[in-house]
Structure to design on (160 residues):
């Protein structure tokens, strides 16, 4: 059985831009490192991440010059580099607050990568057509007209 990878390239792109923007703006303040060297490093990491996301060949990329798998490799390398930065620069000596945000961000990034499908398709096990049919129903009638809003169909067994 393999680990499910539900994040497709579109959702990965949404995460890229959201996290990149958050790192450049509010994250240093939320992590309690505003005005420090750590904050500058985190902001630079966010800017770099958002920049190469715009160059990635995925649905939310603008230039589409960087292959999606290369983008994922940059994500992994960037996460490891960000986690190592406070230790390589000696900032860790100033206390946990100067290295923990870096390591937490790296853990988040690596977790996101573990759930991202490198093919870009995502590993969905839902019946997309059943959801589309249900979304076309009149909500008022589906709720108050009796019966089920979505009728279960035979769902094929998921092989692992």
């Amino acid at each position: 059985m393999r680990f499910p990878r539900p994040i497709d390239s579109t959702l990965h792109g949404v995460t890229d831009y959201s996290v990149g923007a958050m790192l450049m703006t509010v994250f240093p303040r939320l992590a309690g490192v505003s005005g420090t060297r750590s904050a500058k490093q985190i902001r630079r990491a966010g800017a770099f991440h958002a920049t190469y996301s715009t160059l990635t060949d995925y649905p939310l990329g603008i230039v589409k010059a960087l292959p999606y798998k290369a983008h994922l490799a940059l994500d992994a390398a960037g996460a490891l580099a960000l986690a190592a930065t406070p230790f390589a620069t000696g900032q860790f000596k100033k206390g946990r607050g100067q290295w923990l945000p870096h390591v937490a961000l790296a853990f988040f990034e690596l977790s996101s990568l573990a759930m991202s499908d490198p093919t870009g398709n995502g590993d969905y096990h839902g019946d997309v057509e059943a959801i589309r049919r249900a979304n076309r129903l009149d909500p008022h009638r589906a709720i108050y007209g009796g019966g089920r809003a979505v009728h279960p169909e035979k769902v094929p067994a998921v092989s692992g």
